[in-house]
Design a protein that fits this description.
With 154 residues, the protein is mainly beta. Helix content is 10%, strand content 33%. The protein is built from two helices and nine strands; from the N terminus they run E-E-E-E-E-H-E-E-E-H-E. The strands form two sheets. Strands 3, 4, 5, 6, 7, 8 and 9 form a seven-stranded mixed sheet that branches. It is globular, with a radius of gyration of 15 Å. The relative contact order is 0.28.
Length: 154
């Protein structure tokens, strides 16, 4: 994943590009500190996958589906929610002291790759540290990866 050009590239084991997706990462830029609102860099893996079988635009809170499906009306009712939609790929850092462990732990910071309202821009850092994707794209990615899949953020 490239923070500079706001893209996530899915590469197969032979090194071939399978898909490229536009994303939106942390508004506060790159960084690993707890509470920073930054997107952590380095080597990670997908530790958990949440939301398989849920409808597109399903709303999650605390990693659980609420039963709601995102709509402009729902957004108007809850204007301050950080919308986590469709699927969640929960990341875990591999590098002790950098993105794993006290004060910098990607998993404990609840850093996900997840869907966001399709009205939100991609290609521009705007998240609270997570990696936001279009709903159709995160559903597509979810179907192509599995727990343990490597994720490198640079």
């Amino acid at each position: 994943m490239s923070l500079g050009d706001q893209t996530l590239r899915l590469i197969d084991p032979a090194g071939n590009l399978v898909r490229e997706y536009s994303v939106s990462t942390g508004l506060n830029g790159p960084g690993e500190q707890d509470g920073s609102g930054c997107t952590p860099r380095g080597e990670h893996y997908i530790r958990a996958m949440i939301g398989g079988g849920q409808p597109e635009r399903s709303v999650f809170r605390g990693r659980r589906p609420t039963g709601e499906v995102y709509s402009p009306e729902l957004a108007e009712e809850f204007p301050n929610r950080d919308w986590i939609l469709s699927r969640i790929l929960w990341l875990c850092g591999r590098e002790s002291g950098t993105n794993r462990g006290p004060g910098v732990d990607t998993f404990r910071r609840f850093i996900y790759i997840h869907g966001t309202p399709d009205s939100e821009p991609m290609g521009i850092p705007m998240s609270h540290g997570c990696v936001r994707m279009r709903n159709a794209d995160v559903i597509d990615l979810y179907a192509r990866v599995s727990p343990g899949t490597a994720v490198v953020i640079r």
